[in-house]
Amino acid sequence: MTSPAHSLPVPIPRWAYAVALVALVVTWLVLQENGIALGHAAETVHEFFHDGRHALGVPCH
Hints:
- The protein is an all-alpha fold.
- The protein has one domain.
- The chain contains three helices and no strands.
- Keywords: Membrane, Transmembrane, Transmembrane helix.
- The chain crosses the membrane at residues 12-31.
């Protein structure tokens, strides 16, 4: 009987957490933006991502 293989820890650089946080914030803005955060540019952003939002199941109407 063999022992289970032990996985080695993978070092994750600290900047990767910052990149992940920025990606989450941008994703939240694209999926949830209804004009409050972006103001005047919101309509353009909304129309640009409109079909993608519906494809992901995000209601916007």
